[in-house]
């Protein structure tokens, strides 16, 4: 393979001087003059990246929030609420927000896409911060700059909430070409909106046979979501009388949350549709032969939704702030304050943070309010007491009408084991219409808070 094909994003960032710091000290950005010497003159496209982005001059300490998901949106809003003097800038590469929480209900035709879709501009206007649609290429913590495809932005504080990346290598798919094909043809549905649209088309057009889904190992977005998705797909197939078997391969030893409720749904509602196989560690995917292999078996399929194990966004690794003990490349942060160890001007929240809390939307929203308060207090030389995030999760299992079960929990730090445990957990594993309506009311309230109120 030619060197040109090996010109990766990492090499591009290093080559152009946008390399990311590899620790608290880190390497400074290469000066433009050095770049000219290296390449014989700076191409216009690269020069653009090395210029300051065309933004209004900040009127206070600038806080840059990278990532417009549930965590980033919440933090941007509450930073302005807790410290109106902050100049807050939210950056996301997407032109609009589409919620992954509650997307399974959309896949099952219980809500419209408009319910999940919202404007970043509305959020910024209503909560008095700035929004920039741009792709973040890297950060330099030494000079406190964020580099984007429209230029660099200086910051006083930065919050990294960039989400997740799939880790296809953990299911035996290492070749980049095969990874791209797997992502496009059998998307997991937890990174991009296009994945959701593809999955919806798959479900609507499926004519019969084996429809394969899986549950990844490790921590992943919304613990209950893969089991809920299996129920929603089964409900649609049952409604449309599609002759199908839904094969649910769980890479874990058993259902990770709401175990009794999901088992009862599989047995009582979808016994003729769902075949659940725990301890099914995926070791390979044959895209041409349409088959998944595990340690002991091979499972052919007619169509599939393949949700690989996840890792923190590669932006965390490229920034040199990965916790070396984290198998999922999570950030090395203070577990109570969320700032990068050794750098109280950079915080990591949401899916890329290291704490073992749920990666669901409500958790991200709850902790986002706390982190905004921590940053606002730090700017004033103060501290706030640690408080646990709250996790609230609804799981739909039946449609027409929508019916759901739920869980609410907090967390506490166990000083004897040095780990976080569940605390004050209230779980309802009997699904009903009230649960389904509560899930919609919950989402409406969250959207109102992040975008409109």
- Beta-strand residue percentage: 25-35%
Taking the sheet with the most strands, its summary is: 6 strands, mixed
Number of strands: 23
User: Residue share in helices?
Assistant: 25-40%
Describe, in short, the structure shown.
The chain has about 450 residues and is α/β, with parallel strands linked by helices.
List keywords for this structure.
453 residues, 4-stranded parallel sheet, 23 strands, 32% helix
Describe this structure in words.
- The protein is of the alpha/beta class and 453 residues long.
- The chain folds into 2 domains: 1-163 and 313-387 and 434-453, FAD/NAD(P)-binding domain, CATH 3.50.50; 168-312, FAD/NAD(P)-binding domain (3-Layer(bba) Sandwich).
- The protein has 14 helices and 23 strands.
- The strands form 7 sheets. Strands 5-2-1-9-20-19 form a 6-stranded mixed β-sheet. Strands 13-12-11-17 form a 4-stranded parallel β-sheet, covered by helices on one side. Strands 6-7-8 form a 3-stranded antiparallel β-sheet.
- Helix 4 packs parallel to helix 13 (361-379).
- The chain is globular and about 60 Å long.
- Mean pLDDT is 92; it is low at 1-40.
Q: What's the arrangement of secondary structure elements?
A:
Elements lengths: L8 H7 L16 H8 L4 H7 L11 E5 L3 H13 L4 E6 L4 E2 L4 H5 L5 H4 E2 L1 H8 L2 E4 L2 E5 L4 E4 L2 E4 L2 E4 L3 E3 L9 H10 L7 H13 L3 E7 L9 H16 L3 E7 L8 H10 L5 E4 L4 E5 L4 E4 L3 E3 L2 E3 L4 E3 L1 H5 L20 E2 L2 E6 L12 H19 L11 E8 L4 E12 L4 E14 H20 L1
Parallel strand pairs: 1-2, 1-9, 2-5, 9-20, 11-12, 11-17, 12-13
Antiparallel strand pairs: 3-4, 6-7, 7-8, 10-18, 14-15, 15-16, 19-20, 21-22, 22-23
Helix pairs in contact: 4-13
């Amino acid at each position: 393979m030619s060197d040109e094909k090996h010109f990766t994003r990492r090499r591009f960032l290093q080559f152009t001087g946008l390399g990311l710091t590899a620790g608290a000290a880190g390497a400074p950005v290469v000066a433009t003059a050095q770049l000219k010497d290296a390449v014989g003159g700076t191409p216009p496209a690269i020069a653009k990246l090395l210029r300051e982005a065309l933004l209004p001059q900040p009127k206070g300490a600038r806080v840059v929030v990278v990532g417009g998901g549930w965590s980033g949106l919440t933090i941007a809003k509450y930073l302005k609420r807790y410290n109106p003097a902050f100049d807050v800038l939210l950056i996301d590469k997407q032109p609009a927000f589409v919620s992954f929480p509650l997307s399974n209900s959309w896949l099952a035709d219980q809500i419209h896409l408009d319910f999940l879709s919202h404007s970043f501009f509305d959020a910024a206007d209503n909560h008095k911060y700035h929004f920039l649609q741009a792709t973040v290429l890297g950060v330099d913590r030494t000079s406190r700059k964020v580099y984007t495809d429209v230029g660099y932005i200086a910051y006083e504080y930065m919050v990294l909430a960039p989400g997740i990346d799939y880790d296809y290598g953990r299911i035996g798919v290492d070749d980049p070409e095969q990874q791209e094909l797997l992502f496009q043809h059998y998307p997991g549905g937890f990174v991009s909106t296009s994945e959701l649209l593809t999955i919806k088309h798959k479900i609507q057009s499926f004519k019969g046979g084996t429809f394969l889904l899986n549950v990844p190992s490790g921590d992943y977005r919304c613990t209950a979501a893969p089991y809920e998705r299996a129920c929603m797909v089964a409900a649609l197939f049952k409604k449309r009388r599609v002759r199908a078997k839904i094969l649910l391969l769980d890479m874990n030893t058993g259902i990770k949350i709401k175990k009794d409720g999901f088992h009862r749904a599989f047995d009582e509602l979808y016994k003729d549709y769902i075949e659940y196989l725990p301890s099914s560690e995926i070791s390979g995917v044959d895209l041409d032969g349409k088959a998944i292999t595990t340690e002991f078996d091979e499972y052919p399929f007619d169509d599939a939704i393949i949700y690989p194990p996840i890792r923190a966004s590669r932006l965390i690794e490229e920034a040199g702030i990965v916790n070396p003990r984290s198998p999922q490349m999570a950030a090395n942060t203070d577990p109570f304050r969320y700032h990068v160890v050794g750098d109280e001007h950079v915080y990591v929240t949401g899916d890329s943070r290291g704490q073992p809390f749920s990666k669901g939307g409500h958790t991200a929203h709850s902790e986002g309010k706390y982190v905004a308060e921590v940053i606002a207090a730090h700017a004033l030389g103060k501290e706030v007491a640690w408080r646990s995030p709250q996790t609230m999760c609804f799981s739909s299992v039946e449609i027409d009408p929508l019916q759901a079960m739920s869980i609410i929990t907090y967390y506490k730090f166990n000083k004897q084991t040095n780990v976080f445990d569940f605390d004050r957990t209230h779980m309802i594993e009997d699904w009903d219409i009230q649960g389904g309506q509560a899930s919609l009311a919950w989402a409406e309230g969250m959207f109102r808070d992040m975008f409109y109120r």
